[in-house]
Amino acid sequence: MKKRTFGAIVLSAVLAASLAGCSGGAMTEITDKETNKTETASGSEEDSKDSIKVGILHSLSGTMAISETSVRDAELLAIKEINVAGGVLGKQLEPVVEDGASDNATFKEKAEKLLLNDKVATVFGCWTSASRKAVLPTFESNNGLLWYPVQYEGMEASKNIFYVGAAPNQQIVPAIEYMNENYGKKVFLLGSDYVFPRTANSIVKKQAEDLGMEVVGEEYTPMGHTDYTTIISKIQDVKPDFVFNTLNGDSNVAFFKQYKDAGLTPDEIQTLSVSIAEEEAAGIGASYLEGHLVAWNYYQTTDTPENKKFVEAYKAEYGEERVTDDPIEAGYDAVYLWAAAVEKAGTTDVDQVREAAGGIEFKAPEGTITIDGENQHMYKPVRIGMVNGEGLIDEVWSTDGPVKPDPYLESYEWAKGLSNVQ
Amino acid sequence: MELFLMQLFNGISVSSILLMAALGLAVTFGLMGVINMAHGEFLMVGAYTAYIVQKLFIAYLPAGVFDAYCIVAILLSFLVAAVLGFILERLVIRRLYGRAADSLLVTWGISLILQQAARSIFGSPNVGVKAPSFLEKSLRIHGMLSLPYKRIFILILAVFCLFGVYWLMYRTRQGRNIRAVMQNRDMAAALGVNTGRIDSATFAIGSGLAGLAGCALTWIGAIGPTLGTNYIVDTFMTVVVGGAGSLLGSVFGAGFIGIGGTAFEFFTTASIGKVLIFLCVILLLQFRPKGIFAVKNRALED
């Protein structure tokens, strides 16, 4: 290697390798206990007469593992509970766990494996919108069934997906209304640079216009961005009434630590985050987040008898120090909702389950949720919460009851034309 | 004006963080020529060491002495990472000297193993580390111009480390031996320097510096298994732009990327800013392929 170009070659090699590294962490992950179990019990349909195979497809390695492993845990807990109670249609559920490895191509490949090789009755999985969009064609062409546990940007309603997380009108829209009423009209938009924050903010901008609010800043940072001082300077310069935060992953830690360092408090400039739940709060540190607002449908502190039971069971299974949060709860709900639909249909056949699913109610930890048969989203209550000193979230406002899901925001005059935004 | 000064400070602060993170690499890559893709994971090791030290302080010592954890953490994160670096050099790296592509792949493999190990031990969610309370405030000069103590502390720490490395390399017998081995291994060996021992020690020092930087990073960013991947590109860029093998080069590299990057980000957006700084680096390397401060020597180019 000639020395002249050595530096340049090294630099490009490092770049390439580290970009690959984002997804490459993947390959080393050890397969899950459950996977081993099913693989030894050869996967043909004949063998599984007394059991029903269900797929679980989350990132267990790579950058998204931070969030998705807990959702897998909740789904396995629900499966275990259902099995103890006698299973579905008298058969035990047999989870097949696959690792999407935070890589969309891997997600697609594993989805194909689950549907075609394992012939699972349904799949619980995905977190990022990108991974959902990557597996969507696979589920549609093979008529599979995916239960998606995370709030998302809306503008989608596939007949092969049930959306158990919030649609935009069950999180973002009411959150902006709440902030407009309680904090003021100047909003600063901050998000990670990918599909969810950009689509969410295109909704917020339309809504802000309708409410007579002013968007005083809009910033996106690459995933894994570590320095927010410049953006915080911009925030201090334009002095918004609140920051609407759609940052995802590690960036939130850097942002909130540096926000506090800059001497900013929620009393001065409040923030509202839609991707920080109890689990992320623990990683950021309660002292940095105390007093900041978040919007979800469920908190660990949500006061229902079902939630008390759920939190106890989750901690008993996985450890006292673990916390539950919205996507974890949605993953848990998804399994019960599917089981109820199968019981009602009397079969695991996808078309008949889908037919039966509309109108099914489940007394979930967050309160009663109901499947909307038309768009396959859930009726859910909406809650604004404030992070407390222990890193848990206290509810400060909620809707009176479950809100009807409206993924395309058709019931809002200002949202016309938004469905084309992608 | 306030905004300008604030941004200038931000730029300098980002530079100091970069310098801190890149200093270890300036030793292992710059001096030794090992393309160490696991450098980021040494940062991670330091960060987790700080986390463990903090946990122990909370569990076993009275709350009054909590703030002292940062001194213990700084020392221990250096030590733990240095020992790990020493072991790695002995077991793996020493078999790969002079084989750039191989060492790149092997160290990348090591980085994946370390990441997954961290995930198995600490779990994949981020862990929280609280900065000592005397660093939590900021020095409010006027209006929005306020300088966080953490950032000032990291700046001082970076300067301190820089002078430490400078002193070690240019003012001690050990440093002279290191430089001799790096410049002409055979001649140094002929003169009685134990080159194998020097290699291990140098790699350990570089790794230790990374660990120390990792400890400082816990105060401003996320601590998780993927911490290293967030910094690896910027640190390599710092060393390459500055000129491998030159400490002063790394300082200028960090300044160039830190101040330039924040300025671009201020006038455009974070994503575009990143693109612009990469463009500048590519252009710079076109004209100065060995970086700003290329080390001149009389050896024939290989």
Automatic annotation (TrEMBL), chain A:
GO terms for biological process: amino acid transport. Coiled coil: none annotated. It comes from the Bacteria. Residues 30-49 are annotated as: Disordered. Keywords: Signal. Residues 1-28 form the signal peptide. InterPro entries: ABC_urea-bd_UrtA, Leu_Ile_Val-bd, Peripla_BP_I. This is Urea transport system substrate-binding protein. It comes from Lactonifactor longoviformis DSM 17459.
Automatic annotation (TrEMBL), chain B:
CDD domains: TM_PBP1_LivH_like (cd06582). It is a multi-pass membrane protein. This is Urea transport system permease protein. The chain crosses the membrane at residues 12-35, 42-60, 66-88, 152-170, 203-224, 236-259, 266-287. It comes from the Bacteria. The keyword Lyase does not apply. The keyword Transmembrane applies. InterPro entries: ABC_transp_permease, ABC_UrtB_bac, BCAA_transport_permease. Its main location: membrane. It is found in: Cell membrane. Pfam families: BPD_transp_2. Belongs to the binding-protein-dependent transport system permease family. LivHM subfamily. One of its GO terms (cellular component) is plasma membrane. GO terms for biological process: amino acid transport. One of its GO terms (molecular function) is transmembrane transporter activity. Keywords: Amino-acid transport, Cell membrane, Membrane, Transmembrane, Transmembrane helix, Transport.
